[in-house]
Specification:
By secondary structure, this protein is mostly beta strands. It is built from one helix and eleven strands; from the N terminus they run βββαββββββββ. Belongs to the Gfa family.
């Protein structure tokens, strides 16, 4: 297990992740492009492994799947930090750029690659998925 820490731009929100990410991917969906003006690198972590200190605001929208997605961000500096889907509340998406050491994770895939702009630099060594992949499997134990 590897502990990771992160924070928003102004430092008002800090967090700790106490388990390794289930996966790390670059997302090129149009929503992520609106958030970052580019693709976003995202960790998927067990929700219970994320410990947050500080106040967050949220924005809820409906995904193409019909799931409700809650995106959480710092109310002071606007840094987008986390996202949760109503379809998979046991997982939280964490924006890798908010980690103290973003190099501590490496993406394994580009997702929603079909939505990437023509100028996007997609690493050809990563798996390419044109849309949303299947959700991560959970332990049945």
């Amino acid at each position: 297990m590897s502990e990771r820490n992160g924070n928003c731009l102004c430092g008002a929100v800090k967090y700790q992740i106490t388990e390794d990410p289930i996966m790390t991917r670059v997302c090129w969906c149009r929503t992520c492009q609106h958030i970052a003006a580019n693709g976003t690198v995202n960790l998927v972590v067990p929700s219970e492994a994320l410990h947050i200190n500080g106040e967050l605001n949220s924005y809820v929208s409906t995904a193409d799947s019909g799931s409700q997605v809650t995106r959480r961000f710092c109310p002071a500096c606007g840094s987008h930090l986390f996202a949760n889907s109503s379809a998979r509340p046991q997982f939280t998406v964490v924006r890798a750029g908010t980690l103290e050491d973003p190099s501590s994770v490496k993406p394994s895939a580009n997702i929603w690659a079909a939505s990437a702009p023509g100028w996007a630099c997609l690493d050809p060594t990563l798996e390419r998925l044109d849309q949303q992949p299947l959700p991560p499997r959970t332990s049945t134990a």
